[in-house]
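Following up on my earlier thread - several people asked me to post the actual chain instead of describing it. Fair enough. Here it is, all 316 residues.
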Amino acid sequence: MALDPNDKKWLTQLFGTKIKFGELMSKHTSLRIGGPADVYVSPETQKQLFELTAWAAHRQHSYLIIGEGTNLLVKDKGIQAIVISLKKCLNEITKTDLGKNKYRVRAMAGATLRSLCTFAMNEGLSGMNFAIGIPGTIGGGIKMNAGTSKGTMEDILDTIDILLPDGKPQTLCKNQLNFSYRNLSLANTNHALHGKHPIILNGGFILNHTDDRELKKEAKLILKDRKRKQPIGWPSAGCFFKNPSPEQPAGLLIDQAGLKGIRKGDAEISAKHANFIINTGKASAEDILWLMKHVQEKIFKLFNIILEPEVKIVGD
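Reply from S.P.:
Thanks for posting it. Predicted structure:
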Protein backbone atom coordinates (compact mmCIF):
# COMPACT_ATOMS: atom_id res chain seq x y z
CA MET A 1 0.00 0.00 0.00
CA ALA A 2 1.44 3.34 -1.01
CA LEU A 3 0.34 6.44 0.87
CA ASP A 4 0.83 9.71 -0.99
CA PRO A 5 1.35 13.06 0.78
CA ASN A 6 -2.36 13.87 0.52
CA ASP A 7 -3.24 10.60 2.26
CA LYS A 8 -0.89 11.37 5.13
CA LYS A 9 -2.26 14.89 5.34
CA TRP A 10 -5.86 13.64 5.55
CA LEU A 11 -4.98 11.09 8.24
CA THR A 12 -3.04 13.67 10.28
CA GLN A 13 -5.93 16.14 10.07
CA LEU A 14 -8.36 13.51 11.39
CA PHE A 15 -6.17 12.03 14.14
CA GLY A 16 -3.49 14.61 14.88
CA THR A 17 -0.54 13.25 16.84
CA LYS A 18 -2.45 10.00 17.54
CA ILE A 19 -1.67 8.67 14.06
CA LYS A 20 1.52 6.60 13.85
CA PHE A 21 3.40 5.99 10.60
CA GLY A 22 5.83 3.06 10.52
CA GLU A 23 4.72 1.91 13.98
CA LEU A 24 6.28 -1.38 15.16
CA MET A 25 3.56 -3.98 15.71
CA SER A 26 5.70 -5.61 18.40
CA LYS A 27 4.30 -2.83 20.62
CA HIS A 28 0.74 -3.98 19.97
CA THR A 29 0.80 -7.79 19.95
CA SER A 30 0.76 -10.19 22.90
CA LEU A 31 3.71 -12.08 21.34
CA ARG A 32 5.73 -8.81 21.41
CA ILE A 33 6.69 -9.55 17.80
CA GLY A 34 6.04 -7.73 14.53
CA GLY A 35 7.56 -5.32 12.05
CA PRO A 36 6.22 -1.86 11.18
CA ALA A 37 2.71 -1.09 9.95
CA ASP A 38 2.38 1.61 7.31
CA VAL A 39 -0.16 3.26 9.61
CA TYR A 40 -1.34 2.46 13.14
CA VAL A 41 -4.27 4.26 14.71
CA SER A 42 -6.75 3.76 17.53
CA PRO A 43 -9.83 5.88 16.76
CA GLU A 44 -11.32 7.48 19.87
CA THR A 45 -14.91 7.67 18.58
CA GLN A 46 -17.17 5.61 16.35
CA LYS A 47 -17.44 8.64 14.05
CA GLN A 48 -13.68 8.58 13.51
CA LEU A 49 -13.79 4.84 12.84
CA PHE A 50 -16.58 5.20 10.28
CA GLU A 51 -14.84 8.13 8.57
CA LEU A 52 -11.54 6.24 8.40
CA THR A 53 -12.96 3.01 6.97
CA ALA A 54 -15.12 4.87 4.42
CA TRP A 55 -12.06 6.88 3.32
CA ALA A 56 -9.91 3.72 3.09
CA ALA A 57 -12.57 1.98 0.99
CA HIS A 58 -12.82 4.99 -1.32
CA ARG A 59 -9.03 5.21 -1.68
CA GLN A 60 -8.76 1.41 -1.97
CA HIS A 61 -6.30 1.23 0.92
CA SER A 62 -6.03 -2.04 2.82
CA TYR A 63 -6.71 -2.08 6.54
CA LEU A 64 -6.48 -4.61 9.35
CA ILE A 65 -8.80 -4.49 12.37
CA ILE A 66 -7.29 -5.55 15.71
CA GLY A 67 -8.17 -5.45 19.38
CA GLU A 68 -5.47 -6.30 21.90
CA GLY A 69 -3.25 -8.02 19.32
CA THR A 70 -3.72 -11.46 20.84
CA ASN A 71 -4.00 -14.50 18.58
CA LEU A 72 -1.93 -12.54 16.07
CA LEU A 73 1.52 -13.06 14.57
CA VAL A 74 2.83 -10.14 12.51
CA LYS A 75 5.75 -10.99 10.23
CA ASP A 76 9.10 -9.27 10.64
CA LYS A 77 8.80 -7.00 7.58
CA GLY A 78 5.55 -5.63 8.92
CA ILE A 79 2.19 -4.84 7.33
CA GLN A 80 1.55 -2.75 4.26
CA ALA A 81 -1.82 -1.57 5.52
CA ILE A 82 -3.61 0.69 7.96
CA VAL A 83 -3.87 -1.12 11.29
CA ILE A 84 -6.97 0.00 13.21
CA SER A 85 -7.36 -0.81 16.90
CA LEU A 86 -10.91 -0.75 18.30
CA LYS A 87 -9.91 -0.60 21.98
CA LYS A 88 -10.79 3.07 22.51
CA CYS A 89 -13.84 3.65 20.32
CA LEU A 90 -15.79 0.44 20.96
CA ASN A 91 -15.44 -0.55 24.62
CA GLU A 92 -18.86 -0.22 26.31
CA ILE A 93 -20.84 -3.04 27.95
CA THR A 94 -24.54 -2.72 28.81
CA LYS A 95 -27.42 -5.04 29.74
CA THR A 96 -31.15 -5.23 29.00
CA ASP A 97 -33.69 -7.16 31.08
CA LEU A 98 -35.59 -9.60 28.86
CA GLY A 99 -37.73 -10.99 31.70
CA LYS A 100 -37.85 -14.51 33.17
CA ASN A 101 -34.30 -14.09 34.56
CA LYS A 102 -32.84 -13.58 31.08
CA TYR A 103 -30.70 -10.61 30.04
CA ARG A 104 -29.15 -9.47 26.81
CA VAL A 105 -25.66 -8.13 27.42
CA ARG A 106 -24.39 -5.91 24.62
CA ALA A 107 -20.59 -5.78 24.46
CA MET A 108 -18.73 -3.64 21.95
CA ALA A 109 -16.00 -5.21 19.84
CA GLY A 110 -13.10 -3.38 21.49
CA ALA A 111 -14.07 -4.38 25.04
CA THR A 112 -11.98 -7.21 26.45
CA LEU A 113 -13.31 -10.68 27.13
CA ARG A 114 -11.91 -10.20 30.61
CA SER A 115 -14.11 -7.13 31.20
CA LEU A 116 -17.19 -8.91 29.87
CA CYS A 117 -16.59 -11.91 32.15
CA THR A 118 -16.12 -9.55 35.12
CA PHE A 119 -19.28 -7.61 34.21
CA ALA A 120 -21.31 -10.82 33.99
CA MET A 121 -19.99 -12.10 37.33
CA ASN A 122 -20.69 -8.85 39.13
CA GLU A 123 -24.20 -8.74 37.70
CA GLY A 124 -24.85 -12.39 38.62
CA LEU A 125 -25.24 -13.51 34.98
CA SER A 126 -24.22 -17.03 34.02
CA GLY A 127 -22.92 -18.21 30.67
CA MET A 128 -19.65 -16.29 30.31
CA ASN A 129 -17.41 -18.18 32.74
CA PHE A 130 -16.10 -20.47 30.01
CA ALA A 131 -14.19 -17.43 28.70
CA ILE A 132 -12.46 -16.65 32.00
CA GLY A 133 -8.76 -16.24 31.23
CA ILE A 134 -9.14 -16.13 27.44
CA PRO A 135 -7.20 -13.07 26.24
CA GLY A 136 -8.36 -10.62 23.62
CA THR A 137 -11.42 -8.56 22.77
CA ILE A 138 -15.07 -9.25 22.04
CA GLY A 139 -14.66 -8.68 18.31
CA GLY A 140 -11.79 -11.14 18.03
CA GLY A 141 -13.56 -13.60 20.32
CA ILE A 142 -16.65 -13.55 18.11
CA LYS A 143 -14.67 -13.80 14.86
CA MET A 144 -12.64 -16.73 16.23
CA ASN A 145 -15.62 -18.33 17.98
CA ALA A 146 -13.40 -18.38 21.07
CA GLY A 147 -14.04 -21.09 23.59
CA THR A 148 -12.92 -23.99 25.72
CA SER A 149 -14.32 -27.39 26.58
CA LYS A 150 -16.80 -25.53 28.81
CA GLY A 151 -18.40 -23.48 26.02
CA THR A 152 -17.96 -21.17 23.03
CA MET A 153 -19.13 -17.75 21.89
CA GLU A 154 -21.59 -19.45 19.55
CA ASP A 155 -23.45 -20.90 22.55
CA ILE A 156 -24.46 -17.53 23.99
CA LEU A 157 -24.32 -15.08 21.09
CA ASP A 158 -27.71 -13.85 19.90
CA THR A 159 -26.96 -11.01 17.48
CA ILE A 160 -24.05 -9.00 16.11
CA ASP A 161 -23.89 -5.54 14.59
CA ILE A 162 -21.46 -5.11 11.73
CA LEU A 163 -20.18 -2.22 9.64
CA LEU A 164 -20.24 -3.01 5.94
CA PRO A 165 -17.39 -1.83 3.72
CA ASP A 166 -19.76 0.65 2.08
CA GLY A 167 -20.22 2.32 5.48
CA LYS A 168 -23.67 0.97 6.28
CA PRO A 169 -24.40 -0.81 9.60
CA GLN A 170 -26.31 -4.10 9.66
CA THR A 171 -27.63 -6.38 12.40
CA LEU A 172 -27.30 -10.13 11.95
CA CYS A 173 -29.29 -12.63 14.01
CA LYS A 174 -27.90 -15.98 15.14
CA ASN A 175 -29.54 -17.90 12.30
CA GLN A 176 -27.60 -15.68 9.86
CA LEU A 177 -24.24 -16.48 11.45
CA ASN A 178 -22.15 -19.30 10.04
CA PHE A 179 -20.13 -20.56 13.01
CA SER A 180 -17.60 -23.36 12.89
CA TYR A 181 -14.70 -24.46 15.08
CA ARG A 182 -12.67 -21.34 15.89
CA ASN A 183 -14.29 -19.34 13.12
CA LEU A 184 -17.25 -17.16 12.17
CA SER A 185 -17.71 -16.67 8.45
CA LEU A 186 -19.37 -13.45 7.36
CA ALA A 187 -18.99 -14.34 3.70
CA ASN A 188 -22.73 -14.86 3.32
CA THR A 189 -23.28 -11.12 3.85
CA ASN A 190 -21.93 -10.69 0.30
CA HIS A 191 -20.60 -7.25 1.03
CA ALA A 192 -16.85 -7.56 0.49
CA LEU A 193 -15.47 -4.47 -1.22
CA HIS A 194 -11.93 -4.05 -2.55
CA GLY A 195 -10.95 -7.14 -0.56
CA LYS A 196 -12.38 -5.71 2.65
CA HIS A 197 -14.92 -7.49 4.83
CA PRO A 198 -17.47 -6.35 7.42
CA ILE A 199 -16.21 -5.09 10.77
CA ILE A 200 -17.81 -6.54 13.90
CA LEU A 201 -19.03 -3.63 16.04
CA ASN A 202 -20.63 -5.47 18.95
CA GLY A 203 -22.28 -8.66 20.09
CA GLY A 204 -25.48 -9.35 22.00
CA PHE A 205 -25.23 -12.26 24.47
CA ILE A 206 -28.16 -14.00 26.19
CA LEU A 207 -27.26 -14.73 29.83
CA ASN A 208 -29.27 -16.04 32.77
CA HIS A 209 -29.46 -14.52 36.24
CA THR A 210 -27.97 -16.65 39.00
CA ASP A 211 -26.04 -16.48 42.28
CA ASP A 212 -22.98 -14.26 41.75
CA ARG A 213 -21.16 -15.98 44.63
CA GLU A 214 -21.27 -19.30 42.80
CA LEU A 215 -20.06 -17.65 39.60
CA LYS A 216 -17.07 -16.10 41.37
CA LYS A 217 -16.23 -19.38 43.07
CA GLU A 218 -16.29 -21.18 39.71
CA ALA A 219 -14.20 -18.42 38.09
CA LYS A 220 -11.47 -18.78 40.71
CA LEU A 221 -11.24 -22.51 40.04
CA ILE A 222 -11.06 -21.96 36.28
CA LEU A 223 -8.28 -19.36 36.64
CA LYS A 224 -6.36 -21.57 39.05
CA ASP A 225 -6.52 -24.44 36.56
CA ARG A 226 -5.34 -22.18 33.72
CA LYS A 227 -2.37 -20.94 35.74
CA ARG A 228 -1.46 -24.53 36.55
CA LYS A 229 -1.59 -25.71 32.94
CA GLN A 230 -0.57 -22.71 30.83
CA PRO A 231 2.63 -20.60 30.61
CA ILE A 232 1.05 -17.50 32.11
CA GLY A 233 3.48 -14.57 32.19
CA TRP A 234 5.34 -15.33 28.94
CA PRO A 235 4.50 -13.46 25.74
CA SER A 236 2.42 -15.75 23.54
CA ALA A 237 -0.57 -15.75 21.22
CA GLY A 238 -2.47 -18.34 23.25
CA CYS A 239 -3.02 -21.80 21.79
CA PHE A 240 -1.13 -21.80 18.50
CA PHE A 241 -2.80 -24.70 16.68
CA LYS A 242 -6.41 -25.77 16.28
CA ASN A 243 -7.29 -29.08 17.92
CA PRO A 244 -7.82 -31.76 15.25
CA SER A 245 -10.49 -33.29 17.50
CA PRO A 246 -11.51 -33.33 21.18
CA GLU A 247 -9.84 -36.74 21.49
CA GLN A 248 -6.61 -35.51 19.85
CA PRO A 249 -5.89 -31.99 21.09
CA ALA A 250 -2.91 -30.34 19.44
CA GLY A 251 -1.03 -29.98 22.74
CA LEU A 252 -1.20 -33.72 23.40
CA LEU A 253 0.03 -34.60 19.91
CA ILE A 254 2.94 -32.15 20.17
CA ASP A 255 3.81 -33.54 23.61
CA GLN A 256 3.68 -37.14 22.32
CA ALA A 257 5.99 -36.12 19.47
CA GLY A 258 8.58 -35.06 22.05
CA LEU A 259 8.59 -31.43 20.96
CA LYS A 260 8.05 -29.71 24.30
CA GLY A 261 10.85 -27.27 25.11
CA ILE A 262 12.45 -27.12 21.64
CA ARG A 263 13.67 -23.68 20.62
CA LYS A 264 14.52 -21.56 17.61
CA GLY A 265 16.26 -18.42 18.72
CA ASP A 266 14.20 -17.04 21.61
CA ALA A 267 11.02 -18.80 20.47
CA GLU A 268 10.13 -21.95 22.41
CA ILE A 269 7.49 -24.67 22.47
CA SER A 270 6.36 -24.27 26.07
CA ALA A 271 7.44 -27.05 28.41
CA LYS A 272 4.26 -26.36 30.40
CA HIS A 273 1.73 -26.56 27.56
CA ALA A 274 2.89 -27.86 24.18
CA ASN A 275 0.31 -25.87 22.19
CA PHE A 276 1.86 -22.57 23.31
CA ILE A 277 4.79 -21.02 21.47
CA ILE A 278 6.33 -18.43 23.76
CA ASN A 279 8.72 -15.54 23.25
CA THR A 280 11.43 -15.91 25.90
CA GLY A 281 13.30 -12.75 24.92
CA LYS A 282 13.76 -11.29 21.45
CA ALA A 283 12.15 -13.93 19.25
CA SER A 284 11.37 -13.00 15.66
CA ALA A 285 8.35 -13.95 13.60
CA GLU A 286 10.73 -16.04 11.51
CA ASP A 287 11.65 -18.03 14.65
CA ILE A 288 7.97 -18.64 15.43
CA LEU A 289 7.21 -19.69 11.85
CA TRP A 290 10.17 -22.09 11.84
CA LEU A 291 8.81 -23.79 14.97
CA MET A 292 5.32 -23.87 13.46
CA LYS A 293 6.53 -25.63 10.31
CA HIS A 294 8.74 -28.00 12.30
CA VAL A 295 5.80 -29.03 14.48
CA GLN A 296 3.51 -29.45 11.46
CA GLU A 297 6.03 -31.66 9.64
CA LYS A 298 6.70 -33.81 12.70
CA ILE A 299 3.01 -34.30 13.55
CA PHE A 300 2.17 -35.19 9.96
CA LYS A 301 5.03 -37.68 9.79
CA LEU A 302 4.09 -39.37 13.09
CA PHE A 303 0.29 -39.18 13.06
CA ASN A 304 -0.67 -38.30 9.46
CA ILE A 305 -2.48 -35.24 10.86
CA ILE A 306 -2.20 -31.72 9.47
CA LEU A 307 -2.15 -29.16 12.27
CA GLU A 308 -3.71 -25.85 11.26
CA PRO A 309 -2.66 -22.65 13.03
CA GLU A 310 -5.30 -21.02 15.19
CA VAL A 311 -3.18 -17.88 15.32
CA LYS A 312 -3.77 -15.39 12.51
CA ILE A 313 -0.54 -14.75 10.57
CA VAL A 314 -0.32 -11.41 8.74
CA GLY A 315 2.22 -9.24 6.99
CA ASP A 316 5.14 -9.63 4.61
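The CA atoms of residues 141 and 153 lie 7 Å apart. That should answer part of your original question.
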